[in-house]
Amino acid sequence: MSVVAGGVAGVDQDDPQKGRLPLQRVPNEGAPAADATSPGLEAPAVDRTRAAGSGRADNDPTDDPTGDPADDPADDPAGENDGTAPYRTFESALEAQEEAALEARYRLAAEEDPQAGSLLGALLLRRGDLDDAEPYLRRAAASGIRAGANNLGVLLHQRGHREEAAQWWRTAAVAGSAPAAHALGLHLRDHGDEPGSEYWLHQAAEQGHTGGAYALADLLEHRRDPDRAERWFRTAAEAGHREAAYRLGRLREAANDGDGAEPWYHQAAARGHARAALRLGIHLERRADREGAARWYRQSAQGGEPRAACALGFLLRDAGDEVGAADWWREAADAGDGNAANALGALHAAWGEGEMAEQWYRTALEAGDHNGAFNLGLLCAADGREAQAEQWYRRAAYAGHREASNALAVMLLQRGDTPGAEPWFSKAAEAGSVDAAFNLGILHAGRGEQHHAQEWYARAAGQGHAEAALQLAVAKERRGDTDAAAVRYRQAAGRGSAEAAFRLGVLLERGGSERDSEDVDRWYGVAAEAGHNRAQVRVGVRAAERGDTATAEHWYRRAAEGGSRSAAFNLGLLLAREGGEAEAMLWYTRAADAGHGRAALRLGLIAAGRGDLATARNWCEQAAQHGPGGVTERAERLLEALRADLSA
């Protein structure tokens, strides 16, 4: 039994399609407070269509906290290259003429009609002419026009006069303006007045304001009220708010409702939400829909999400396209993804390009991924640079990297520094390292502290460590608790331990129950297929007992070719019975040369029968030396007879 250092390069986890667009960095979409400084204009109650020549007089820009044009075609300036440019130019000119006509009409009426002044102020505000817009909006607001009060708040907010803006938003909100209630709610939230913020955001949401519903849900989630948050995220998402759809998906996923999360991720991803596309790709990959996962990973990566590029790289690697994987990992790593840099390092290490591997591991470390330091330690250890390996392990271990702590402890233990190793094993085990927990078991067992050893073995076994479960089983069998031993052997065998499968077969066979016979064969078979020599011999013996000589020969050969002297002897016996004496002698000889007493005795008897007394004496001497007891006695009697014949 030996300690486990933990071994492969630390990378996590993913379409051979070509023609990828380069990765582009975009603003961090959907940050919860991204809409806090985007109060919405409100058109006056009259002339609500095209009041300011924009076609969106009633819309609140904060309905889309990401500012992404994909949520509203009216924001999309495309057309220059789609065959509609002449139409767009004509339409733009027509809109400009209409806007100019509206402005002239509003100016004529504004002095006498506050409503016209409100419309003119809104038009000028949209144009960015704040100085000209302000007096018209102030006059409209003072006249009790709700839209004028809201839009005056927007103007003042843009000028940095936020408290005065809030006063006018309050006036408009009390009069029933949903955009003003939304803006006032955000203002109060940013000033720490959560109850006031919740009240006004609720007013906006109840009036159907999408941004208000989203902001209210965000506030409720922040206050750990997921049920009410989900209601309002759903309201906003159903109105087309992509960030709300994404957040709703996250809520459902947090509630372990992956099936419920996926449609919302799909809705957000279809509207260009990069992180939603990433999550959707992850869900599809878990369902083994690799083609679908690759499509959404690619969209997410092209939207600026390096984690998606990294995941796509793993998909490609698993499909055998290491070069394609490296391309995506490189793009992700260049965008600051440490996991991708580690994956590149591991790939170059596998290609035998140590210098490149080291470079990428350092890049990962510079990106803040301490896995890079651990991988540098592994790389140095593999090259025999023990001092450098220890430095890198220590750097990662001090940063809390549990497998680096375990690897450092193994290095110290192998150097004989047990007092220095134990604290690092403990730190790694407490952080969740299964190997470290197992290694602590070995450490305590070596000191005879069986109770502590069993505790650590049980902890490691509970986390899936097969060897730890095997050690527990062996201890229980030694104490005579065969039922508990069988449970642990099954646990270890189920996790891939061939030794546990073999020992379980032996335990069941010793029980002698007829109903366990199939189980015995099954577990011996599991161990034999995994290359366990003694299990292969047992499978052969049981097959021979049933008269199945073909199966017996197959397993004897496998075990003998793997170095089992018992299998070599048994194969010789089987071949001899079947008439293959010449080949049988070869296997007897191999077994005897490996120290098998019965094989040596049989060779001695065969040689004596042929009259080759000197050869017979040599084999009998080997048989007497190797035993076991009965073989030794027979060999010594034969030797006495041979000596008499040789001296006669």
UniProtKB/TrEMBL annotation:
It comes from the Bacteria. Residues 1-86 are annotated as: Disordered. InterPro entries: Sel1-like, Sel1_AlgK, TPR-like_helical_dom_sf, TPR_rpt. Residues 60-79 have a biased composition (Acidic residues). Gene3D superfamilies: Tetratricopeptide repeat domain. This is Tetratricopeptide repeat protein.
